[in-house]
Design a protein that fits this description.
260 residues, seven-stranded parallel beta sheet, single chain
Length: 260
């Protein structure tokens, strides 16, 4: 990529203040992007942005006006967005369907489905105007199988379908759109869930083919590749980064994944 600051292309990472988002910000910075760290947690976003010489952007993707004003600010202050990582999401703890909180359901759908759609639409406009770009949405392997994440899983299934729709609609205009689906990843939010006893990392580890959980940087590496010119003919795909959870599913019927 060009060396001069003004010529370096702009990448926007929503949910960039922590976890997979922050790891992605750092990875894209290493690849030569100027990175916008977009998040509701503006203080944390500023800390991440400061470390990479980026721009911190306060944004709540559950609010359409917040997305639109954020996209306009990026264009005005930094120029057209050439890469977008739609990582921001509302998380959920395991529970049975009959215990689903309706208010929580609405928040998850507003953020993960409507918010992702609005993010792609608003930040993608400059890509359409300026001859192309690349987008990566962040789904989840809960979109690809059954889980006790009653609202989160369906919301991420919608993200996968949305990704394919945008990939075909915008492909002729030079915009590639792909989805990365992380498996059990040791983000700060998940580590906190382990500490509260809501999830058991050992149970999760035993479901993986690699006998370990995913690190945020490993998801970031997959995202960075999909945004790069090395993936120039790749669009509309769903890429699991899950330490082999999906591959190992049926092994539990036969005693589980082998233990060395």
């Amino acid at each position: 990529m060009p060396a001069s600051e003004g010529d370096r292309p702009v990448a926007v990472v929503t949910g960039g203040a922590g976890g997979i988002g922050a790891a992605t910000v750092n990875r894209l910075h290493e690849d030569g992007w100027r990175v916008v760290v977009a998040d509701r947690a503006i203080d944390a976003a500023r800390a991440v942005a400061r470390a990479v010489g980026g721009l911190a952007l306060e944004i709540d993707i559950a609010q359409p006006a917040s997305i639109a004003s954020g996209a306009a600010r990026v264009t005005a202050e930094w120029g057209p967005c050439r890469a977008l990582v739609a990582c921001a999401a509302h998380l959920e703890n395991p529970h049975p369907p009959e215990r689903q909180d309706p208010t929580e359901w609405e928040r998850i759908i507003a953020t993960n489905v409507s918010g992702t759609f609005g993010t792609l639409l608003e930040f993608g406009r400059s890509m359409l105007r300026n001859g192309g770009g690349a987008i990566v949405t962040v789904g989840s392997i809960t979109a690809l199988s059954s889980s006790p994440l009653v609202a989160y899983g369906p919301s991420k299934a919608a993200v996968i379908a949305m990704t394919r729709n945008f990939a075909v609609a915008w492909g002729p205009y030079g915009v590639r759109v792909n989805c990365v689906c992380p498996g059990p990843t040791r983000t700060p939010a998940v580590e906190a869930s382990y500490a509260r006893g809501e999830r058991d990392p050992e149970v999760m580890r035993r479901q993986t083919a690699l006998a370990r959980l995913v690190r945020p940087v490993e998801v970031a590496d997959a995202i960075a590749w999909l945004l790069s010119d090395r993936a120039s003919a790749v669009t509309g795909i769903t890429l699991p980064v899950d330490s082999g959870v999906l591959a190992a599913q049926l092994w539990n019927l036969y005693g589980g994944v082998p233990v060395p």
